[in-house]
Each structure stands twice: as structure tokens, then as C-alpha cells.
Amino acid sequence: MDICRLSAEAALARMESGDLSARELVQACLDRIAEREDTVRAWTFLDPDLALAQADAADQRRRDGQAGPLNGIPVGIKDIIDTADQPTENGSQLCAGRRPDTDATLVALLRQAGAVIMGKCVTTEFALSAPGKTRNPHDPARTPGGSSSGSAAAVADFMVPLAIGSQTGGSMLRPASFNGVYGLKPTFGTISRAGMSPLSRRLDHPGIFARTPEDMALAGRVLMQRDPADKDMRAHPKMGEADPLTAPPRLAFVRGPAWGRGEADMQQAIEGLARDLGDDVREADLPPVFDAALECHGMVMNGAVGQSLGPYYDRDRAGLDPITADRVERGRPVTAREYLDALYQAEEMQDALAGFFDGVDAILTPAAPGQAPRELTRTGDASFNGYWTLMGAPAASVPLLKGADGMPIGVQVICPWGQDAKLLRICRWLADKVGEWR
Amino acid sequence: MDICRLSAEAALARMESGDLSARELVQACLDRIAEREDTVRAWTFLDPDLALAQADAADQRRRDGQAGPLNGIPVGIKDIIDTADQPTENGSQLCAGRRPDTDATLVALLRQAGAVIMGKCVTTEFALSAPGKTRNPHDPARTPGGSSSGSAAAVADFMVPLAIGSQTGGSMLRPASFNGVYGLKPTFGTISRAGMSPLSRRLDHPGIFARTPEDMALAGRVLMQRDPADKDMRAHPKMGEADPLTAPPRLAFVRGPAWGRGEADMQQAIEGLARDLGDDVREADLPPVFDAALECHGMVMNGAVGQSLGPYYDRDRAGLDPITADRVERGRPVTAREYLDALYQAEEMQDALAGFFDGVDAILTPAAPGQAPRELTRTGDASFNGYWTLMGAPAASVPLLKGADGMPIGVQVICPWGQDAKLLRICRWLADKVGEWR
Questions:
Q1: Is residue A171 flagged as an active site residue?
Q2: Which of A253, B142, B291, B344 has a CA positioned 20 to 30 A from the CA of residue A311?
Q3: pLDDT tens-digit readout, B305-357
Q4: Distance (Å) from the C-alpha of residue A346 to the closest C-alpha of chain B?
Q5: How do residues A121-132 score in pLDDT, each as one tens digit?
Q6: A235 touches chain B (CB under 8 A)
């Protein structure tokens, strides 16, 4: 196997045994990038010398017996997340040349664990919907999805085994689905957003892309640390060690309020999956309070965007992509009353969801309306993700299905709050049971 | 001493020793109410038979060895807090005759502790500013303050030793000051609001009126219990047992951003107090971020009121007092952006306040602009309280000062988050050191 195709776990095992150096691993990833970047365009900043210097330091640490849990593993970072040694431009010309003084907390945690901060991955403008330059590695005429476009594409194209993205609507799991990789949006409040450009404190979730569930767990164990600088952190965030599944998980197949926006090939593929899983899955409807879920997420997100991006808009509207400016304009008229009504309605949904999970280990539902659309001027529809983001429960996309053109389609798996480790076990169980998309 | 003048603690001691029955205590309070209610008008609902039946049950429990920590103690309940056996009308004709099915959590906790739910105390309409019928017991031409008007007046006038109120702006500590009693607005999220008419989930605090700091601690130990039905509860609310003060507390006298709204007699009285305390107090200015504190509280409160009372307004504007309707109208145009900006600015103040408390045990600052105003159509100015409510730190009013007409003026004492027990120790220390107002 090409070195660049190794999972983080496999690469760590080989580095531990002395069979591979971090320099070799990073060089293999750099070679892959050099070969493919003209097509995929996943990176907005990449300094090979800086990456190799970090790799050499990692090799030295390993010789010194100081190797952390991600020692020498290259990780791509979405460009809304601050790095002290690399620019962070938020996908916006308004932030061109911006150089933060300090690392975001999650970047600092990765460095402490020994990771190589490989470079900055393309994001849509401020993690909304105005696309960057990235193309889908499986078909460059198609969008990679967004907003974590470069992070998903880089992992899918074997440029890095791990990348960090974020999700406020569908910015992790939609690109995971479109690119045929795993994506984890962990439980709300488990990974610090300090040093990450905010859209909505209520909705923003950092997340992890990888090519195996186990690599997501590995990164999650490093990243889920309480940080007082993020006021919305849970008290005891943790990626636990889930008990092994001693029996098949009890799954509920949920079409959900966005089902009508799905494409026929996706609908048939996931219904077929549910059928194939037989007794391990039952069909279920969400409680009626979810009928308002799409509108509710939209209201919270728009109201928050009016606040978070309002200052950029006020300063230089023309400097924003019209897609971004339009989103701010939709957010500005949202009243506190509308915003609070939506927040409280979301709590009712969260309560109802807690009851729904009685006797259910995980929900299966679409991760995206279908294959990646064949266009580069938009990033696709987040309707299948936004309301789950609003729920705060951990959600993953598992690359199980194939669409009409042979492109990947993800299955979204959702577990109760805090059960991130169990979620990843179930992702593994599904991948073993039905096989990945290829 | 008249039985109705006993503190809860003293009454409990006498009941424990068999020297007093709950029926005698409740009857003494009912006699006091019968004597004074025409003047004070503290109660919106009072059923002597219901109170006496509860007293008899309490006496039976004591004989059975089942007496809880408040067994037989009569407690007044602000009429925005639900009681299953008594009406709860929220001070509004829109809720006339309303009979809740269940007790608010805090009422249920009081009952579990053996308290006698004496009756419902007058509130302003929906705990905003439109006055009810209550008059100041020290001068019936003056307001008792609001919104917890009846609760404060009933305790001040020896009708009950304890009463429950609430504060969103200055609805606990202003009436405590005007009526010459103790009031405690505990740390945010320590007493459940489930079953209490909401104004702002960010700001609403149930609170305790009493005639001694020890009685507030007694009630606080009963009431500070986690309740999943209030989503904003702290994880481990508790009225601890504070260590005894082994040295004088280190106090900071703070004039604060509302100082200019104070009256001359209040300003002189509290400056005199600070001087008299000598080395135990130093003057200090709040950090500059507090310059916006009054506006910030107003924005959060107005935005929330537009949401919480909006449905009443939409249904029957004419049924609201014009003062209430005006407040809703001020809240309706508040945007999500303005609301969120204010919330995040308040967090900066909270951070700055945490630093301010380095080397300071408690802040002394005015509890009100001066004596209770000589009017019954308004309830006075909450400017000295609202921004402390926004901070969420525990705050008490201590009846130490006297105004130009001999009316009481409270001193507001504030401790860091969670230090409610220490706050009450410091209230006791102050009362012993300088004496109460009378």
C-alpha cells in the first residue's frame, strides 16, 4: 500500500515499530499533494519545508521516548481555524494575509499530541456557502461540498489521513458524503472552538474527517478536552472507550423532514440498505415536533450569522461574496423573539429525541440529498444535516452507498448526546456488515 | 417577642422544643395579616383554613418524627410561581382565576421540607413594572418596590418570616431595600424556575426574603436543588456551609455605573458606611467594560420580554397594563444581533468581574437609588440591580442604612459565583458590625 494511503492508526503502528519515519510519511503525503493538487485544489496554504521540519521534530521526539498519540501524523486544518505559524484567511479576501498570533485550542492540542500541522484546507467564505477553489477528487467537475471542502477532499484523495473541519449546518457530513470519507460531528461542546471563526455559538461544531472510524476516535481522544476559553463546552467532554458491541446495534431508519429533498438514487440506496440490514433496523418517524426542524435550524443560524458576520458586512459589504452578503442580509431582520422561540423549540426537539432513543442505539438517516452535484459554483444542500446539528447529538457520515453515477453517498448515523465512542463503534459495525462504497 | 416576629430559625427551635406549635405560629401570622393587610395589601390570595390545615399536618409530622428543615414555617409565594392548591395569576387580569395543575419545583421543595405555603404575594404584572396593590409597611404612601412587592412587604411587616420572590432586573433587592429586610438573589441557576412565569431565561432568578441572613441560608439549603426541568440550572447547585469568618472580610466599595442615579442621602449614607468600616473596605472602580453594563442588561431583558410576553401581547394587548405593553413594544424590535452582542458583552463583564474578585471577598454597592419613593404608581428604579443580575453572581441586600425621612436603605453585597453561603456570612458580619437600620 502506498504510504499516503495508510490510516493514521496504521502509520502510527509502523512508526512505533521503526518501520516508517514521520519524515517519510509526511513526504509521501507531500508527494501525493504535488501530484494531485492541480486537480483537487484542497489547500489554501501549504509549506512543505514547514511540514517536514515538524516531521523531523516528531521523529526526534519518538527517538527521545516523547511521542504523543498522534506523533508524526499529518493533519489538515480548515482555514477558519487559527494557526500561529501559518496564515488563517477564513476563505475571505477580507482576511487576506491574516496571521494569527496564537494557535486555536484544537490546533494546540494536536501539536501537543505530536501531530504535524500539514497546512490549511480550503473553506467556503467564512464557512458559509460561497465556494472556494476545491474540486471533488472523484470527479473534478463536481463540488466537494462545503464548507469544509478542502479538509474532506484532502482526506478522500489520500493527501492526509486526518483533517479538521467544522459544521454549523451541514459542513462536515455533506462533504464527507460527497467525497466518500468518514466524518464526525461530535457531541456539542466537546471540542473547543476557541480560535475558530464563529458563525453561531449555538451551532458551531469542530469535526474530524478520516478514512476509518478508528482514526476519528484517535483524533477525538486528543481533541475532546475542556477549554475555559470556549464558554459553551460541556463540563466533562471526553471520547470514551466504548464497550465493544456484543450484539448488533438496534438501529432506527429515519427519513426525516428533509426526505422530500432527496434524490431518487439516494432514497433507493438507503432504503435498500435498511432492507438489507433486516432485523437490525426498524423504520421510525421522528416525533411531530420535528416538523419544524428545518425552519428552526435556519432561524437560529441566520440570526446568529447576522451577529457573527455583521461587523464584516458593515465594514465592507462589497468585499464579501454576494452569497455571503445575502446570508447576512437574511440574518439581520431576525428578531430576538424569533431567535429565542427557535432556540426553545429546539430544546423541545432535544427532549423528544432523548425519548426517541429509548430502545434505539442509533439513527440511520441520509447524510446528503444524493451524490455531489455536478457544479462548482454551489456546495450542495445541507437540509439533511442542519437540524441534527441543532440537536447537538453526535453524528457521523459513513461512506456506504453509491449513486447513479457511481459517486459516493454517505449514511448519517446519530447517537444520543455524549455517546461519540459508541457511535464510532456502530460506524465500524456498519462498514464491516455492508462494506464501503467502492 | 410576638410570635409573628420570630425568625424562622427561632420558631423552628421553639417548635423543636415543644414550646410552640405550627398552628400557633401560623395563627399568629394570620392574626398579624388580619390586623395589617388593609394597610399593606401584600396578599393576592390567602385562605386561612388552608394555611391552618397545613400547619396541623406539620404538627402531626413533628409528632411522627417526620419534621423537615422548614416544618411548620409559613412562607409567602410570589404570585408568578405556580401552586397547585392556590391560584396563580401572574399579577395580570389576563390570568385571572388561573389555577395551575402542579406546584412549581421550588414550591414542591418547600412543601417537602415541611413549610406551610401561606398564600400568594402580590407581584407587579408579569413581574415587570406595573404595580399591584401593595403599599410600603413603613409608610403606606410609598411604594414597596417591585416586582416582588408583596413578598418583601409581608416579611417586613412580620406577616411571614420567609417569602419567595424573583429578580430579572431589580425585583428582589430593590424591594428588600425599600422595606428594610434581607433579600438574596442567589447565584444564577441554583434555584429552579420550573413553574415560574418567565421573563428572561438568561436573567430570571428566584430569590428569598427574610429578616435574618440565617433564615435566607436555611431556605437556600432547601431550594438549591438541581432540577432537569430548568435547562439553565448549574450542574451542582448548593447552598454550602461557609467556613466561619476568621478575619474581617476584604470588602470593595463600588459606586458603579448607576451611581449618578442615586439620591444624595443614599450616597452619603453608603459613603459614610464605607468610611466607618475603615481598613476592612477599600474603594474600587469596576473595569471599563462595565461602562456599558446598564445598556447591556436592558438589551438582554427587553429582547427576552419581547419573546416571553409576546404571546400575551399578541392575544390581548388591551388586557395588559400600558406599562407592560410598552415594555413588550420596546422588546419587539430588538434584533437577534443586538441580543447576542449584549449577551457576549455580558460574558466579558463576567470574566472581568472574576478578576476583580482577586483579593476581594465581597463588593459593597447601593441596593437602590435611595428610600422608597413616595408614590404608588411606580415601583422605583432598578438601575443598581439589573447589571448585577446580568452577572449571575450572588447578591444580597442588607438593611443597614436610613434615608433622610428615616426610611430603610439597603446595602447590596455581591460575592463570586457559587459563594452564596459566604455571602450570607458577610451579611451577618456587616449587620453585627454596623447594626441594622432601625
A1: yes
A2: B291
A3: 999 999 999 999 999 999 999 999 999 999 999 999 999 999 999 999 999 99
A4: 12
A5: 999 999 999 999
A6: yes
From chain B, pick out residues whose CB is under 8 angstroms from the CB of A307. Answer: 336-337, 340-341
Confidence band for B407, pLDDT divided at 50, 70 and 90: very high
Cβ-Cβ contacts under 8 Å, A200 against chain B: none
Whether A335 and chain B come into contact, CB under 8 Å, resolves to yes
DSSP result, B242-302: PPPPSS---EEE---TTGGGS-HHHHHHHHHHHHHHGGGEEE-PPPGGGGGHHHHHHHHHH
Average pLDDT over residues A149-160: 98
The per-residue pLDDT for B212 is 98
pLDDT at A94: 98
Which residues of B belong to the active site? 78, 147, 171
Model ipTM? 0.94
Which residues of chain A lie closer than 8 angstroms to B392, CB-CB? Answer: none
**Any B CB within 8 A of A322 CB:** no
User: What pLDDT, in 10s, does the model give residues B233-264?
Assistant: 998 899 888 888 989 999 999 999 999 999 99
Q: A with B: how many residue pairs have Cβ under 8 Å apart?
A: 58
Q: Does B337 reach chain A within 8 Å, measured CB to CB? A: yes
Residue of A nearest to B303 (CA): A336
Mean pLDDT along residues B206-231: 97
Mutation for B interface: A188, A299, A340, most B CBs within 10 A: A340
Q: Note whether B264 contacts A: Cβ–Cβ < 8 A.
A: no
User: Rounded mean pLDDT of A412-437?
Assistant: 97
* pTM reported for the whole predicted model: 0.95
Q: Which domains does chain A have, with CATH numbers?
A: 3-223 (3.90.1300.10), 251-434 (3.90.1300.10)
Please tell me which of the candidates A231, A306, A347 has its beta carbon nearest to residue B336: A306
Per-residue model confidence as pLDDT tens digits over A218-252 = 999 999 999 999 999 998 999 888 888 989 999 99
HSE value, Cβ hemisphere, 13 Å, CA-based, for A124: 31
Count of other CB atoms within 10 angstroms of residue B325: 20
What is the pairing mode between strands B362-366 and B408-414? antiparallel
With the CA atoms of B161, B167, B170 and B175 taken in that order, what torsion angle do they form, in degrees rounded to the nearest 10?
A: -20
The active-site residue, picked from A147, A151, A197, A308, is A147
Closest alpha carbon within chain B to A200:
B340
Q: Please check the confidence at residue A1 and state whether its pLDDT lies above 80.
A: no
Q: Is A229 touching B (CB cutoff 8 A)?
A: no
Q: Which one is catalytic: A7, A21, A78, A151? A: A78
Chain B contact present for A232, CB below 8 A: no
Spell out which residues of chain B touch residue A350, defining contact as CB-CB under 8 Å. none
Confidence class for position B6, pLDDT limits 50, 70, 90: very high
